[in-house]
Fold:
Amino acid sequence: MHRRLSLAAMGAVALVVAVVPAVPASAATVKCGDTITTSVVLTKNLTCGGDGLIVGAPGLTINLNGHTLKGSGVGAAISTINFDYQVPDLALTIKNGTVKGFNWGLHLGSNYVYGSNVYVTDLTFRGNTVAIAQVHIDLWIDESLFQENQRGLNGGESAWHVSDSVFRSNTYAVDIADAEIWFDNNRFVDNATGLRTERTGIRLYGRVNSIWPHCDGLKWPHLVVVGCGRGRVGSCWCRFR
Structure:
């Protein structure tokens, strides 16, 4: 009887182990330059002399968990640029931390990844050459801070959805081409230039965006502006800094 009970108990333990889900990789197993194929939760800051993390599979979540990815002025903190095939949806989420001191904070997209979604929430980008560079991606940004970057958002042939975020003291808050952009409830403060575009194909949608300081006389000859600030289309974008 005792032997039968022991075997039954062992079977129960085996069953419990079998149903425990895999846990994300932690910072203990992640280092600068790694290609990641499973979701990541950092447990410490990472300081990188080149690239940070390279995304190697769709459907991942990179949770900085309140920590910082710090660069030395080169490379990308997080990159999808190695994708050389088309995926139905990249479905990448990056959240909750700080990215500073890289050439690219996030380097997203490639010539082969179309129609993919990337979600950025509760991130601070500070002191990067380009905070987010992207092409061929639908990018969703929420509750993030872009401060003292040479360029906040940079790219084209893509869609940008930006809400509840702050752009402060950047050389160019937004520098884009051939894109559709939705701005909702953002603040633009003390940027040298709020919006820059040198090509046609830009379509801007916006509401309740706080722009400061006032009009600096910049012209936007290639823009089609839709629904900005209760019909104040001209003054809203004239004041876009």
Observations:
- Residues 1-22, 212-241 have pLDDT under 50 and may be disordered.
- Residues 22-201 form one domain.
- The radius of gyration is 22 Å.
